[in-house]
Structure formats: structure tokens, C-alpha cells
Amino acid sequence: MIRKAPKYSEQIEEIKKTLLRLTKEMEHIHAQQTDLEHALNEYPVLAELKTKIKPYEDLWKLRNQYDAKCMNEWINSPLGKLDPEVVQQEFTQMLQKAGILANTFGNMPNITRPRAVAQALVKLLMKFKESVPIIQAKLTLSLSSFLKDGGW
Known about the structure:
- The protein has helices at 5-35, 44-76, 84-106, 112-129, 132-148.
- It is mostly helical.
- The chain is elongated, with a radius of gyration of 22 Å.
- The N and C termini lie far apart (46 Å).
């Protein structure tokens, strides 16, 4: 399931496009109803769908961010390219978001797979947390060496 994160992200984007199209259609209908001085129809399901899809969107975005940042950018960046404080801040935000998502899906009794992905993501991030000080040290040493050599 985790390997399908890009596919799920694409599906979420398609759903969001559909919701946007439906929202525009609703606004057009409201404009016509206003012109006709007719009571506006309400579409509560549309607002509900937008709210319900948000945690899924956040989950797959975070999963993709984990791959992009933790497994690629932070590990493979050349020395001096990244700011250690920014790495720490972004990592902390990712870990907090993963915890929130694990809690959100944990409160949805019939939603087992997204809950499992959120929990797995928390575990992956906790394991990666051990590497953050090493990455920061590497970046800090690189930055201090750059400054010491008069690279600025």
C-alpha cells in the first residue's frame, strides 16, 4: 500500500478536480437562482466530501514528502547544500503531522488501511529520527568548513 502512494496521490488530485468542478457548477446554479430570485439549493454533501478527503490527501502528501526528503534530499544532498535547522524543522513537522494522522485514522474504526499507513509512517519517521543528528552534523561541519575556508 505504501508503494502505491504516488498512485493514491494522483487519485486524490482527480477527486479534488472533480470537487472543484462541482463547486463551480454549484456556484453557477446559485447565480442563476439568485437572478431568478429563487431560494438557493444547498449541497451539504459537497462540503462534507471536501472535509472527508483532507486526511487522505494529507496522508499521501506526507508519504510522498517522506520519500522526497528523508530518503532522497536529506540523505543524498551534497555537503553544504542544506540548512541543518531547516532539516530539523521540516522533520519535526512531518513527525507531528504523522502523529496527528495516525490519531485521526485511529479514531475511524472502519478505516484500517490508511490507519496502518499512518502508523507505519510514524514508525519510519521515528527510525529516521536517529539519522537526523548525523545529517545535521554533516551539514554543520560542511557549513563551518565552508565559512572557515572563506567560501562566503
